[in-house]
Design brief:
The chain is mainly alpha-helical. 74% of the residues lie in helices and 0% in strands. The protein contains four helices and no strands.
């Protein structure tokens, strides 16, 4: 098979593929939140779960042929960026005060 034949091959990504990938990403993120104790890993796992939900929303939007879901994902990505900035600021402040970012070793946010 040469390159001219490769350009004629068309791969279809169905809704089942998109939702399957979204489920795998969401479960991976959920396992990271439940099993890990490092706050940075938990924050990254939460972001992975949010991106899995965004992927599912884009998949359903494409399946139904309406751009509403894609617009909602764009707004959710802006909210997620703000959430990461605030979350990282809180983590840095806690690390400066207590020198620990392990979830089990933090008793609470009060002094």
């Amino acid at each position: 098979m040469d390159f001219s034949q490769l350009s004629q091959i068309r791969l279809e990504v169905s809704l089942y593929h998109v939702i399957g990938l979204s489920m795998v990403l969401f479960v991976t993120g959920a396992m990271g939140v439940l099993l890990r104790r490092n706050v940075l890993i938990v924050l990254m796992s939460l972001e992975l779960m949010l991106n899995a939900a965004n992927l599912a929303l884009v998949g359903f939007s494409r399946f139904h042929g309406q751009p509403d879901g894609q617009v909602a994902v764009f707004l959710l990505m802006a909210v997620a960026a703000a959430e990461v900035a605030v979350g990282l600021a809180i983590i840095v402040r806690i690390f400066r005060d207590r020198h620990v970012i392990n979830v089990d070793l933090m008793k609470g946010l009060k002094r």
